[in-house]
Specification:
6-stranded mixed sheet, about 600 residues
């Protein structure tokens, strides 16, 4: 899952999820280093007796949040069992009507699956049927008041787990050095990981605190985007991610899954900070609010809003994907080419959203369009309202709360798309229908689309008209060109900066292109190329410029002018002539 330049998202997305590169299974059971681990010391013996808390039942939580399933392996014991081990579990607390269980799960390369065993108050004698790490599976409808259970476990070997609340990096190194299991549990504040010890030794030998801190921050940012804090819905339950040995990366009913071969990406602190896309993408799948924000052909789209938000925060306001080269509408591979391709498909070619040709989908796009092109208008709304602070900064959190609290039973995929646009107008208190029409979302469609499933998406002209009529109760947004916003121009919108430039200056001609110098032309969110009255090409600010000092603009034969577009939609003539003016004088001149 990859990545907005539209490369933007080299967005191999979950196509990558199900690819199966060569899989290394060098951890066949316990490694020699693990087998020679030292006898249990005081640190490891501490895992024998612990107090375990109850968590919200997974189906109940998923129903409340309208998300996928959270962690089914809460309460790690830190004890590793072999098949055939005799286990004595002493529950010192009266469990009352609760139903805790000892769960044993084998996450290793030769995984034997899982088994769970009911526990009663007092002594429980169990024979392990599978090898693996132990968990006290304790989920209750009364999780807020259910008793904390003091439990002592005899049998198996103490492997331990890492908890940043209790442990330092000193304990991290000790856990890795003395592991008896091929897998180590890492219990964060918001997420729990089950990663291979050998990979952790190689990728993160010294700093478990920073590793789990990054994962906790990713989950916190996703929860922030979802509005869970604002609406007091932040769950006690953690998310979950584990190693897998086949496939690449994906999300399923267990959580996020990362192949052992990807540990250099997902267990290496420096690599996570440089590119957190895959992690955020898979956790984003779990956090997709469904079905109201996950309808046909958005499965690999709405989750990537989380990826972009986290990338933006990790990169301190810069989106690495925007720096990557991608094909524009004409097939030129340029920095920003993917964004320009989306704008051409929507604004010039008039293609329907979800069915737009883009850099990744040059063929067969009519029934499942380019992933980046689908994502961009959704992300631009967040850039406008949240990052540029041009309105309700809780825009998406408020929309998702509307979806979480609405009855969506019996609604069609088309209904979900229409409701999203209606909710967007409601929470922003702005008439956003001109934006939705421009990007192809508020447009009639009657197609059987292909996602991981085939589903009919039907929106009629009458339904479009009804949304337009509904939205007229709100004023138009301050900017009529929200669709031109990009990471480099959010400040132009936020500070409402006017375009400044000198007609016919700061322009370098090269064949069918013009390079416009930003020292001469300032604050333009985009440049438009015209042939007479016809808009033929669009270049967002900074196209094909690594340092963003210029913008490359397409200017093929027959072109008559270039206009610089301000955040408020005003156009300033850069070069050429407008149809209604004298060819001997510029239409407008703005001083630097």
């Amino acid at each position: 899952m990859n990545a907005l330049s539209l490369s933007l998202i080299a967005f191999s997305f979950c196509t990558l999820c199900f690819a199966e590169p060569g899989v290394s299974t060098n951890l066949s059971g316990r490694s020699p280093a693990m087998a020679s681990a030292t006898p249990e010391d005081a640190f490891h013996k501490n895992f024998r007796t612990q107090v375990y808390e109850a968590y919200q039942p997974l189906k109940s939580l998923a129903s409340q949040l309208k998300t996928g399933t959270y962690n089914q392996y809460e309460n790690p014991t830190g004890i590793y069992f072999q098949a055939g081990d005799t286990i004595i579990v002493n529950v010192a607390t009266d469990i009352g009507e609760e139903s805790p269980r000892l769960l044993i799960m084998d996450f290793g390369p030769d995984g034997k699956g899982k088994k769970d065993y009911p526990l009663k108050t007092g002594e429980n004698k169990i024979t392990a049927e599978v090898p693996g790490l132990g968990y006290i599976s304790y989920y209750s409808d009364h999780y807020k008041t259910a008793p904390k259970l003091k439990i002592t476990i005899q049998g198996g070997k103490a492997n331990g787990y890492f908890d940043p609340v209790k442990h330092s990096n000193r304990e991290w190194k000790k856990l890795l050095a003395e592991a008896v299991s091929p897998i180590l549990d890492i219990k964060g504040r918001k997420i729990q990981l089950a990663f291979p010890v050998q990979a952790l030794k190689k990728q993160c030998p010294d700093n478990g605190l920073e590793l789990i801190g990054l994962y906790d921050r990713i989950v916190a940012l996703e929860h922030n985007f979802m509005g869970l804090g604002k609406y007091k819905r932040t769950p006690k339950n953690r998310m979950f991610a584990r190693v897998i040995w086949k496939g690449y990366m994906y999300a399923d009913g267990i959580g996020a899954a990362f192949n052992n071969n990807t540990m250099r990406k997902v267990a290496n602190v420096d690599n996570i900070k440089a590119n957190s896309w895959g992690i955020a993408h898979e956790l984003g799948h779990v956090n997709q609010v469904r079905p109201g924000f996950k309808w046909v052909c958005t499965t690999e789209t709405t989750n990537n809003l989380y990826s972009l938000w986290i990338s933006y925060n990790f990169a301190k306001g810069k989106i690495n994907q925007e720096a990557r080269k991608a094909k524009d509408w004409d097939g030129n591979k340029l920095i920003g080419g993917g964004i320009n391709c989306y704008l051409h498909a929507a604004l010039i070619a008039g293609e329907q959203w979800l069915c737009q040709r883009g850099p990744d989908r040059q063929a067969n796009y009519e029934f499942d369009g380019d992933h980046g092109s689908k994502l961009l208008p959704l992300w631009q709304l967040h850039q406008y309202f949240n990052i540029a602070a041009m309105g309700n900064r809780d825009f998406y959190g408020d929309i998702l709360e509307r979806i979480r609290t609405s009855n969506d039973k019996g609604l069609s995929d088309g209904d979900h798309q229409l409701n999203f646009m209606k909710y967007a107008c409601d929470v922003s208190k702005k008439n956003l229908t001109p934006f939705f029409k421009a990007v192809g979302m508020l447009k009639p469609i009657d197609k059987r689309l292909i996602d991981y499933r085939k589903a009919q998406l039907t929106i009629t002209q009458e339904q479009c008209d009804a949304i337009e009529a509904y939205a007229k109760r709100y004023p138009l947004p301050a900017s009529p060109v929200i669709y031109y916003i990009s990471s480099g121009t959010t400040d132009f919108y936020k500070k409402r900066l006017a375009v400044k430039g000198l007609f016919n200056q700061g322009i370098t001609e090269q064949g069918r292109t013009r390079t416009i110098n930003h020292d001469i032309w300032k604050n333009a969110v985009a440049f438009e190329t015209y042939a007479g009255e016809e808009l033929t090409h669009i270049a967002v600010w900074g196209t094909n410029s690594e340092d963003k000092s210029s913008t490359l603009v397409q200017y093929p034969e027959g072109s008559t002018r270039i206009e610089a577009v301000s955040w408020d939609g005003k156009r300033t003539l850069v070069t050429g002539t407008r149809p209604t003016q004298s060819k001997r004088a510029p239409a407008a001149t703005a001083s630097l």
